[in-house]
Predict the structure.
Amino acid sequence: MNKDQLIEEAIGIRNRAYVPYSKFPVGAALRTKSGKVYTGCNIENAAYPVGCCAERVAIFKAISEGETEFEELAVAADTQRPVPPCGSCRQVMSEFFDRDTKIHLTNLQNNIKSIVMEELLPFSFQPSDLIDDK
Ligand code: THU
């Protein structure tokens, strides 16, 4: 699956979003290095903070299926500019993505911003920062 098809998957999965509160459907599609695609949509909750963003749903689905190697992620929403992922999602991405993993952010007008993990969250807290070898 190429980048444009991955973006189409991200746009399409917005139909499954559960967004009675924000009415703002977001879709994500994550391609593994082995070529599988895991999609995600945002899932909200009456207890607002419990909801989960589309990006994290896609990543957690993949991780829970045993996937660890990711090639690229597409994220889509009906925004003016390519949709910027929230800070929590950036931190989750940084846990599982390499510095050069590609992330394609888009809106529905095909304004695409393609960046890599290091650009999306520079100087991020990493698992290696927990190691006490000072
Ligand atoms: N949201 C996402 O799913 N991903 C983003 O990148 C931005 C925000 C969701 C969270 C919430 O369900 C709704 O969009 C409004 O913030």
